[in-house]
């Protein structure tokens, strides 16, 4: 599959890192590795996610991030309820775990490869990624109403799916299977479990092959309508894309087309 670099990104638990980071052909894979605990968000996991997130943002060798969980049962089942009970956690602090685009700037694209249940905090992690690829057996739920917890992080949900669908997800706490999640627009594609990694890697590689400045500007543009009026979004989009038009890559694309070769992007 090309060049691969792997290392731990989280504190050790039972003799191994609970979050791992590896780069495969320009795609960073950040994996929660607590399958026996359904990849629940213990402190070690949260610390590892923060470390891996910062590492990806600074990693010039990685153009796209894929977030996933180890094993076949869970992407992430949410918070570690045993730990919450022991610490009597009330309101999670703002830096409880990375929320891409909210408490950490994430200019590069992110993909959630959902390999099982994505409940509560696991739903949060998938929601905050730009794209979602789900295994056929994946399930999604904002289950906080069933355990008396909160989900303020779900504020963007009614922008991602129709408002009445968002209300049903939030008020019932009932899970959606992968097919329903795809139907309502929460998931981009559903694949066989055995193909999940390959399909996510292929999608990420296609994105990584594009002009990096254009990719980052495209991502920013897509989110403008969630935070601005249409007129404001157009004005802000012009400002976002102006430096892209003026870049060396904007000249490289047409030149490579004329010369019938693959573009060589410099990100400048």
Polypeptide structure, described:
- This protein is of the alpha/beta class and 268 residues long.
- The protein folds into two domains: 205 residues, Alpha-Beta Complex (2-enoyl-CoA Hydratase, Chain A, domain 1), CATH 3.90.226.10; 47 residues.
- Helix content is 40%, strand content 19%.
- The protein is built from eleven helices and 13 strands.
- A hairpin with a 2-residue loop joins strand 2 and strand 3.
- The two termini are 28 Å apart.
- The relative contact order is 0.10.
- The mean pLDDT is 92.
- It comes from Actinomycetospora endophytica.
- Belongs to the enoyl-CoA hydratase/isomerase family.
What's the arrangement of secondary structure elements?
Blueprint: E1 4-8, E2 12-13, E3 16-17, E4 19-24, E5 27-32, H1 43-58, E6 64-69, E7 74-76, H2 81-87, E8 110-114, E9 117-119, H3 121-128, E10 131-135, E11 139-141, H4 144-147, H5 157-160, H6 163-172, E12 176-177, H7 178-183, E13 189-191, H8 196-208, H9 212-224, H10 230-245, H11 248-258
Parallel strand pairs: 5-6, 6-8, 7-9, 8-10, 9-11, 10-13
Antiparallel strand pairs: 1-4, 2-3, 4-5, 11-12
Which keywords apply here?
single chain, about 270 residues, alpha/beta, 2-enoyl-CoA Hydratase, Chain A, domain 1, 2 domains, 7-stranded mixed β-sheet, 4-stranded mixed β-sheet, 11 helices, ClpP/crotonase-like_dom_sf, Enoyl-CoA_hydra_C, Enoyl-CoA hydratase-related protein
Give me the CATH architecture of the largest domain, please: Alpha-Beta Complex
User: Helical element count?
Assistant: 11
SSE string, helices as H and strands as E: EEEEEHEEHEEHEEHHHEHEHHHH
Low-confidence stretches: none
For the terminal residues, how far apart are their CA atoms?
A: 28 Å
Mean pLDDT: 92
Radius of gyration: 19 Å
């Amino acid at each position: 599959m090309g060049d691969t670099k792997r290392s731990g990104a989280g504190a050790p638990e039972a003799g191994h890192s609970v979050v791992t980071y590896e780069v495969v052909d320009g795609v960073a894979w950040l994996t929660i590795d607590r399958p026996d605990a359904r990849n629940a968000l213990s402190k070690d996991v949260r610390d590892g996610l923060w470390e891996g997130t910062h590492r990806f943002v600074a990693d010039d060798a990685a153009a796209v991030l894929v977030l996933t969980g180890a094993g076949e049962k869970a992407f992430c089942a949410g918070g570690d309820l045993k730990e919450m009970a022991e610490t009597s956690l009330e309101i999670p602090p703002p830096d409880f775990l990375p929320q891409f685009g909210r408490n950490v700037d994430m200019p590069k694209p992110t993909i959630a490869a959902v390999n099982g249940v994505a409940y509560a905090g696991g739903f949060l992690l998938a929601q905050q990624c730009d794209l979602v690829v789900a295994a056929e057996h994946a399930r999604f739920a904002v289950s906080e109403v069933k355990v008396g917890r909160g989900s303020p992080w779900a504020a963007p949900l009614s922008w991602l799916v129709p408002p009445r669908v968002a209300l049903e997800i939030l008020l019932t706490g009932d899970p959606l299977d992968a097919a329903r999640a795809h139907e309502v627009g929460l998931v981009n594609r559903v694949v066989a479990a055995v193909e999940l990694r390959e399909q996510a890697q292929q999608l990420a590689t296609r994105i990584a092959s594009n002009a990096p400045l254009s990719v980052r500007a495209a991502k920013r543009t897509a989110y403008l309508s969630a935070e601005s009026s249409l007129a404001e979004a157009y004005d802000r989009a012009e400002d976002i894309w102006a430096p892209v038009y003026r870049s060396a890559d904007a000249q490289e694309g047409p030149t490579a087309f004329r010369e019938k070769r693959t573009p060589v992007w410099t990100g400048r």
